Predict the structure.
Amino acid sequence: MSAARRAVGDRIVHKEFPPITRHRLALYCGASGDHNPIHVDIDFAKAAGFPDVFAHGMLVMGYLGQALTDAVAPSRIRSFSTRFAAITQLGAQLTCEGTVIELIEQGGEKRAKVALTTKDQNGEVKLAGEAVIAL
Amino acid sequence: MVDQSAVGREFTPVTARVEPGRLRFFLDTLGETNPVYRDEATAQAAGFAAAPVPPTYLFCLEMMDATVPFEFLTALDIDLARVLHGEQRFDYHAPVVVGDTLTFHPRVTSVTDKKGGAMTLIVVETGVTNQSGVHVADVSRTIVVRNARPS
């Protein structure tokens, strides 16, 4: 993986994840420390106006981070940000992708901006983000 | 409803240790198999003193070890059921690895009403330092509060 060869337009991130289950959300509560009941307790979710529980945004961002560090060594990531564009429902099969959109010099090093998306099986964008990586 | 008076509010600093067992639980939950996070020799070959944490794990550490969970919501009188996560950002300044002890300093940096008061966006920025006083990261979250009615 020679980072120096990155060019604008390179799709460097691509990973698919298994469908999100209730069990996964329960595990993520414990693993992340985020015990908001809206992600595991259907009664609470309904009382809050949702048809069912839904995924933690940070679980979905965790998948995106995984897809990113499959392609880029963790030591090269300078920033990682995302907007949560839509709620991720149970059963969602997520695909994470990232494309180099700009080469920059910043902080005394050559870096690349990578546009990131997470979409479900219907192509709906769940997360739209960006990472800055050192080349 | 949260208003501009909340800007500048600081919350109780959280100190959290990067424990290997808890980190493994997180990796298993995400199906993360990258050896850099699991194998000390691989991590060291990649230039880390020990296994590094994945990109979003700082967010978890702060929540796991908070003595008052969701303190900023309680302090601002926000109902947990009305909150969605709008945006999240991490700026990394130095490595964070297993064995580190981190301190998180959260504060409100902006409050913005949207859609005529139907929603309020609140930004909480959190500086993170390690046991040596090194400023390792800045974490910024934007939460969306779905207000009961426009005001």
